[in-house]
Write a structure and sequence with these properties.
The chain is mainly α. Helix content is about 60%, strand content about 0%. The protein contains six helices and no strands. α1 packs antiparallel against α2, α1 runs parallel beside α3 and α1 packs antiparallel against α5. The longest helix has 26 residues. The chain is elongated and about 100 Å long.
Length: about 180
């Protein structure tokens, strides 16, 4: 575009015209974190439900030691946080990533606390889990594998960049370099 004498036209005042379009960040890491969070929520929620269903008749939850109840409560709370966090991450909320991180940390705490709750050693506990003799052991191993990846994918910068990204609103249409005619000309 040239001016009236063949020279290049000067740009208009600042704030007018169209800005370069922003590139949308990839949501792959956020979606992976949310999917892994759903798997971890299912595994963490399955364990206390299975434990409560397998209590013998005549035995109350109140008869369990406090550390066991704390560990089961951690699993239930972690499952709830992971489920809500995964659903929130699907709806592009930064709070979803925060909930995924908190839920993952609660699962890690519960896993590290579980051998202590049942008066066992860590080596024996993990050896029994990795023998895959029961479905519960398989669920625990899946949870052991999925939760660290959920935590990592929830805190890496591309995930947070995707969840924070909002498109800039389009500027209102204004013809460029057109000023009202001056009086007296």
């Amino acid at each position: 575009m040239t001016g009236p004498y063949g020279y290049p036209a000067q740009p208009g005042p600042a704030g007018f015209g169209y800005h370069a379009p922003q590139t949308r960040p990839s949501g792959a890491t956020a979606i992976i974190a949310a999917l892994l969070g759903l798997v971890a929520a299912g595994a963490a929620g399955y364990l206390p439900v299975y434990f409560f269903l397998e209590l013998p008749s005549g035995f109350s939850i109140g008869d369990l030691p406090g550390l066991v109840l704390t560990e089961l409560g951690l699993y239930l709370l972690a499952a709830l946080l992971l489920l809500v966090g995964a659903l929130s991450a699907f709806f592009r909320s930064v709070a979803g990533a925060v909930l995924l991180v908190l839920g993952s940390l609660l699962v890690i705490t519960a896993v590290l606390m579980e051998p202590l709750a049942f008066n066992g050693a860590y080596g024996l506990y993990f050896r029994v889990q990795f023998e895959f003799e029961t479905f519960v052991a398989l669920v625990r191993v899946v949870m052991f594998a999925v939760v660290p990846f959920t935590l990592i994918f929830a805190i890496i910068p591309p995930t947070l960049k995707y969840l924070r990204w909002r498109p800039t609103p389009a500027p209102p249409y204004r013809p460029q370099n057109q000023f009202p005619p001056q009086a007296g000309w």
